[in-house]
Amino acid sequence: MPYLDDYPTTHLYARDAKTLLTPNSTQRTTLIVAGCYIVAIGILWHVPFLSWIIYPFKLLTVGFHEMSHAIAGVLTCATIHSVELDPDEGGETRMSGGIHWITLPAGYLGSSFIGACLITCGFDTNASKVASLVLAVFFIFTLWWARRNWLTWALIAGVSGLIILFWFVAGGAALRYLILFIGVMSCMYVLWDVIDDTIARKVNNSDASAFARICGCFPSQVWGVIWLIIAFIFFAAGIIVGLVVFKQSAEEQKEQAEHFIPVPGSSGAVPAASIPTFLLMLATAISFKFLN
Fold this sequence. Notes:
- It is a single chain.
- This protein is mostly helical.
- The chain has eleven helices and two strands, in the order H-H-H-E-E-H-H-H-H-H-H-H-H.
């Protein structure tokens, strides 16, 4: 039998949860923009010619997919031979060794997790800057494994240019909307790809088909549904964490961003921090790659 004293505590937790999940004006704007992204991506995805607008971002999400395979391979002691993208929005990660029942689902689940993290960071300017630095490291490893795959190099050069450009717009405020878009795009692509490859139609060479052959307990469509549910959970979690963690207003974010890797000319800019760190990292990696 519950004690009466338990009820005030329960109501307190419920009230706190409601407060944390209720968006403020800045977060409402972010949610509206994210919703517009979803609608725009859904339209552009299926309209001939217009689909080329989001084509580079489709390839980027394929890169997330392949890099997730590669990272899982490294964590399970595999040898990564190459990571490649192709113009038909496909990709391939060549590796030997590793634990296949971990590396195979890592493509879809890893890229959806990356997308969810980027969505969370898209709620805050400084978090978006941190996400850009993490993406820089991600790009460096991708280039290292890409060998001479020209499409991968061109894609990363183009996306890096966009990140640099948006970093300098409105003191970095525009950067978070780019990070938010990449996150939404990644999650949307995973959801669509899982449905298209494993549920709507059976592709014999898909990750789910290979995983089903290894495990043997469920057909590829069942694994596709399981991965789809997990991807939805990641998508929702990215939004919820963003709502809970980043409650600062746009003005507060702007003030904080002036003191965290600020752009040149801002009040918080200093020579050592005026240029985004990822610029130097990426330039060093590219130079090293071409010199060798």
